[in-house]
């Protein structure tokens, strides 16, 4: 594997600087002086989750870092692989495409410098429209409807158009950040937003405060069709997620994992993994979707190898990583 460390690590951090309790015994001689987490657009869960996680790492481990707005999982995979960011957030569908050389951003390039760290949460695919539109089901979406699919090349933009096409929806495709699309929906510039994001989606919660919306579920038949044709799982959006919902809403979902450059220092990644996995209460303070950011869910990564630093923490704590998923 080629070495991209020189583009990630901008210096070393002396052990005499601020030493967080969790990493007091770690060898910091090869640690980065700073790091960046690739997230997604503002108004989406990735941005909130990734920025909050970056701040937790920076505060506790004494390394300068933060979240960066990106186009989402597909771009994050390319940025991590190329060494342009140290960490990122990714969905398993785009991750599978990336490692097999099918990323739309780099066709034919097998992204082999991307390793998994820990499970985040499931990304439900959900649809929101204004109540005044009269759209209460997928079959109600009129021909030629203007549908916002999130940032270009995001998980939503990669899979949701194909899902709606499979379900017989004819639409005019629009892209943009989630907050921007929420504003366009409220202003009548688009008709529907097809979200693929961790819940609660900040843009939807904001819309609920400002106007009346319909959160549209899949019918049983629609769900079965999507499960048969796409790499997704069954999901129920709990009624407690949004004020608008009166009962759980049927959906489909993909798992998300945090990712890292495989050539990041093992000790550094070990401490990042330890901090994250041993402080789920603090992760839930970042975003409540982190309730599933627990080591028991590592089984949902069947695509990427785990970083050696992450493997060390899991195995020390009784979680087995198959040999096939180790470097």
UniProtKB/TrEMBL annotation:
The keyword Signal applies. The keyword Signal applies. It holds the Pfam family NMT1_3. InterPro entries: TRAP_TAXI (IPR011852). Keywords: Signal. Residues 1-26 form the signal peptide. PANTHER family: SLL1037 PROTEIN (PTHR42941). This is C4-dicarboxylate ABC transporter substrate-binding protein. It comes from Halomonas aestuarii.
């Amino acid at each position: 594997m080629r070495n991209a460390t020189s583009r990630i690590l901008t210096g070393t951090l002396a052990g005499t600087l601020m030493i967080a309790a969790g990493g007091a015994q770690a060898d910091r001689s090869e640690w980065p002086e700073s790091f960046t987490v690739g997230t997604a657009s503002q108004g989406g869960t990735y941005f909130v989750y990734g920025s909050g996680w970056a701040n937790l790492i920076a505060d506790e481990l004494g390394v300068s870092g933060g979240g960066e707005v990106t186009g989402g999982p597909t771009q994050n995979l390319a940025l991590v692989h190329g060494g342009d960011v140290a960490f990122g957030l990714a969905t398993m569908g785009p991750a599978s495409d990336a490692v097999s050389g099918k990323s739309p951003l780099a066709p034919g390039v097998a992204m082999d410098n991307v390793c998994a760290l820990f499970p985040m949460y499931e990304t439900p695919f959900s649809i929101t429209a204004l109540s005044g539109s009269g759209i209460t089901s997928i079959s109600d979406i009129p021909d030629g409807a203007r549908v916002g699919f999130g940032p270009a090349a995001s998980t939503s933009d990669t899979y949701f158009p194909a899902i709606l096409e499979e379900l017989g929806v004819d639409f005019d495709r629009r892209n943009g950040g989630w907050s921007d699309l929420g504003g366009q929906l409220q202003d009548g510039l688009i008709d529907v937003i097809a979200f693929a994001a961790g819940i609660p989606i900040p843009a939807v919660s904001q819309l609920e405060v400002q106007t009346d919306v319909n959160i549209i579920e899949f019918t049983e038949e629609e769900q079965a069709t999507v499960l048969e044709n796409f790499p997704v799982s069954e999901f129920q959006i709990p009624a407690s997620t949004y004020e608008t919902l009166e009962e759980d809403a049927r959906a489909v979902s993909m798992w998300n994992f945090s990712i890292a450059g495989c050539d990041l220092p093992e000790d550094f990644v070990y401490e990042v993994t330890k901090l994250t996995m041993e402080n789920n209460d603090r992760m839930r303070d970042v975003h409540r979707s982190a309730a599933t950011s627990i080591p028991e869910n590592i089984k949902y990564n069947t695509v990427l190898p785990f970083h050696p630093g992450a493997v060390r923490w899991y195995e020390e704590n009784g979680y087995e990583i198959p040999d096939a998923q180790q470097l």
